[in-house]
Amino acid sequence: MKQELYTWHSKQLDKDMSLFVYGEKGIPLLAFPSENGSANDWEEHGMVEAIQEYIEKGRVQLFTVNTVDSESWFCENGINPWRTSRQEAYYNCIIEEVLPYIHKKNKSKTMPIVAGVGMGANHAAIIFLRRPDLFQSLMALSGIYDVRYFFDDYMDSNLYDNAPERFLENMPPDHAYIELYNKRKMIFCVGQGYQEFDGVKTLKSLERIFITKSIDAWCDYWGYDVSHDWYWWKEQIQYFLPELLGDNDNLD
Questions:
Q1: What's the rounded Cα separation, in Å, for the pair 155 and 229?
Q2: Residue 252: predicted pLDDT
Q3: Which residues contact residue 215 at a Cβ distance below 8 angstroms, ignoring those fewer than 6 apart?
Q4: Where does residue 181 rank: exposed (0-12), middle (13-18), buried (19+ CB within 10 A)?
Q5: Are 216 and 188 in contact (CB under 8 A)?
Q6: Which residues, 6+ apart, have CB-to-CB distance to 192 below 8 Å?
Q7: From the centroid of its chain, how far is CA 159?
Q8: What is the DSSP letter of 26?
Q9: Residue 17 CB partners (closer than 8 Å, separation 6+)
Q10: Phi, psi for 242 (deg, rounded to 5)
Q11: Are 55 and 23 in contact (CB under 8 A)?
C-alpha cells in the first residue's frame, strides 16, 4: 500500500499542517482523528489496517489530517473569540486547502466521503452539514454534538457556524440544503457503554432535529458493551464503509 506525507504552510491557520495519503486511487475518504489528534492517528490506532483491503484494491484513497483542537475546542484557558476563530480558520483550511489538494491528488473525479472518530466526528459533521455540495457522504463515530460541552453558554457567529445543533435547528424547511442532505448518505454511530453517555445524549438531540426537518440520517446506537475506543471504531468503519460505497461496491 502506497503511503505519502504531504505538508504545507496553511494560509488560513498561519501554521504548518500535514496529512497522510494512503493508496493511489478510489473514492477519496477524508478522515479526522480524535481529540487533539495528529495526521497519523488513524494508522497508529489500526484504522488504516481495518480498511486496508479497500485501499489496496483501489476502492478507497484515504486522506488523514491533523487538527488544531488544542487551540480551539480544548483550549480551556484561551479567550473564547480567539478559540472560535481558530476553529473557523481550521474549517476554512479544510475547505480551501485540503479539499483542492484531494481533488488534485485523486483521479476519480468523485466527491469525498468524510469521516471522523470522537472529536473528529464533530469535524466531519460540521464540514459535511455546512457544505453538503462538496461531499457525497458522512460517517461520524462517537461525536458530542453540542458546543456547550466545550464553551458552556458562550456563543458568537464563528461558533454558531460550527454548531450543527444550532444552525440545523434554525434552518428553514425549504432550505436547499435539506434536499441535498437527502440525496447524500449520513451515518452517525455511538456506543452506549463507557464514556459514551454524552455522545448518546447529544446524538439523540441531533436525531430529533433531523426528524423535525425531514432529514434522512441513519443514527445508530450500539450496545452497552461498546465503549469510546479505537477498537470499536475499527469495528464500526468495517461495518459502515460498505454501506457508503454502495450495494454494488464490494471486494469480491
A1: 30
A2: 42
A3: 168, 178, 181, 182, 186, 209
A4: buried
A5: no
A6: 200, 221, 222, 223, 224, 226
A7: 17
A8: S
A9: 7, 8, 9, 10, 65, 66, 93, 97
A10: -60, -35
A11: yes
pLDDT in tens, 60-85: 999 999 999 999 999 988 999 999 99
Nearest CA to 217 out of 172, 191, 183 is that of: 183
What is the model's pLDDT at position 246?
Answer: 85
For residue 101, count CB atoms less than 10 angstroms from its CB and return exposed for 0-12, middle for 13-18, buried for 19 or more: middle
Please, is 219 exposed, middle or buried when counting C-beta atoms within 10 Å of its C-beta (0-12, 13-18, 19+)? middle
Q: List, in order of start, the domains of the chain with CATH numbers.
A: 3-244 (3.40.50.1820)
Q: Cell numbers 447529544 correspond to what residue?
A: 202
Query: How many beta carbons lie within 10 A of that of residue 36, not counting itself?
Result: 16
pLDDT score, position 76: 83
Cβ atoms within 10 Å, residue 121: 27
CA distance 48 to 11: 29
